[in-house]
Write a structure and sequence with these properties.
This protein has 379 residues and is α/β, with parallel strands linked by helices. It is 42% helix and 16% strand. The strands form four sheets. Strands 2-10-9-8-5-3-4 form a seven-stranded mixed β-sheet, sandwiched between helices. A two-stranded parallel ribbon has the order 1-12. It has a two-stranded antiparallel sheet with strand order 6-7. Strand 8, helix 7 and strand 9 form a beta-alpha-beta unit. Helix 11 runs antiparallel to helix 14. The longest helix has 21 residues. It is globular. The mean pLDDT is 97. Bound molecules: pyridoxal-5'-phosphate. The site of pyridoxal-5'-phosphate (PLP) has 12 residues, from helix 3.
């Protein structure tokens, strides 16, 4: 396979637009120059557009999405303070692990791919003294979008901050931060935005900003990062300049498309992908009522191994899809459809899924998945 000419369908990193690639390839620029400050200010404003809030202040953190999550946790939760972390997948669990390094974490566990139990969250909140509720909005590992609006309301009603890992939602799945009481949000450059990996952004509203306390990290002092970017248009330390240039270009493309159009496109891609999985007679990983519109997971039919499936997809058909983690590892494949993913990308991917399954001896009717994508394309 030519790895420079494949169909890249992971749930991040994602395929990049040519304008984004070109933006990364510019000569070095002084990160303390007026020219770069302008780039940073424009990136900051585009981030507010992407976060769908003019009320949040933003910080750009050089480091992947996890750095943004750690930054939020380190600045908001102190030893002895209680936070609730909701986990119905790998990333929710990890968010709890990160937060547990800083404070006392109560985990509300749920089944992967199923909506968490709101009554259990409420019961924990009613015990009192909860500083923050931390939620992975779009749980990439189990292909589910958690009910952020409802959980945000519960947090707010009980006086807790609501921290939203929006790493595979923000920019692709609607977020309404004010209405949902999302005090803190985090995104990653390589996901819905469609830029290279290596940057994260953290957004904080006034309520969260007032509570920032950086005693637990020097580099990830969120107040310092926010104040610099919102003030002089700077970062406290040398940032990942080429990735910021790429993020700016990717978010300009997002703005040209219009965020609501991008949301709508992802909704249609999600619906088409689920139709394709069902058309093949495969079982969806997530409860359809909460299924993600940026990633779709499907169980393999019996007799098909992950190694053979993804090996053939890549080697023979040049299509890269993801496997799964933990207890579903080897049982599931996942297809990402965020950022610049098109319907023709999705159709090509499922054509390869059909050819691969058929080649491995699984009986199916050619076109049984792709037909659902064509249906959505002609709607
Ligand atoms: C929902 C979610 N949260 C956190 C992360 C971790 O982000 P990163 O790998 O950029 O550090 C990921 C990565 O896939 C994710 O999907």
């Amino acid at each position: 396979m030519d790895i420079e000419d494949n169909l890249f369908m992971l749930a991040g990193p994602v395929k990049m637009h040519n304008r984004v690639l070109e933006a990364c390839a510019k000569p070095a620029i002084n990160h303390r120059s007026p020219e770069f400050r302008e780039i940073l200010k424009e990136t900051r404003d585009l981030l507010k557009y992407t976060f769908n809030s003019q009320e949040h202040r933003v910080a750009l953190i050089s480091g992947s999405g996890t750095a943004g999550l750690e930054c939020a946790a380190a600045n908001l939760i102190k030893p002895g303070e209680k936070a609730i972390s909701i986990s119905n997948g790998k990333f929710g669990e990890r968010l709890g692990d990160i937060a547990a390094l800083h404070g006392d974490i109560v985990r509300v566990k749920g089944e992967w791919g199923r909506c968490p139990d709101l009554e259990s969250i409420k019961a924990e909140l009613e015990k009192g003294d909860v500083k923050a509720v931390m939620l992975c909005h779009n749980e990439t590992s189990s292909a589910i979008t958690n009910p952020a609006k409802e959980i945000g309301k519960l947090a707010h009603d009980h006086g807790a901050l609501f921290v939203l890992d929006g790493i595979t939602s923000i920019g692709a799945i609607p977020v309404h931060p004010k209405e949902w009481h999302a005090d803190v949000m985090i995104l990653g450059s390589q996901k819905c935005v469609g830029a290279p990996a290596g940057m994260s952004a953290v957004a904080v509203n006034d309520a969260a900003y007032e509570k920032l306390d950086a005693r637990q990290s020097y580099y990830l002092d969120l107040k310092k990062h926010v104040d610099k970017l919102e003030g002089s248009g700077d970062t406290p330390y040398t940032p990942a300049v080429p990735i910021i240039r790429a993020m700016r270009e990717a978010m300009l493309l997002l703005k040209e498309e219009g965020i609501e159009n991008r949301w709508r496109k992802c909704e249609r891609l999600g619906s088409a992908a689920r139709g394709a999985v069902k058309g093949l007679g495969l079982e969806l990983l997530a409860d359809e009522a909460y299924a993600s519109n940026t990633v779709t997971g499907a169980y393999y039919p019996s007799g098909i191994t992950d190694k053979d499936f993804r090996g053939t997809m890549t080697e023979k058909h040049g299509v890269v899809v993801a496997g799964a983690q933990d207890h579903i590892k080897g049982k599931v494949f996942r297809v990402g459809h965020m950022g610049f993913c098109s319907f023709t990308d999705l159709a090509g991917c499922f054509a390869a899924v059909e050819a691969t399954l058929r080649g491995l001896g699984h009986t199916l009717t050619p076109g049984s998945s792709v037909a659902h994508i064509v249906d959505e394309m002609t709607r």
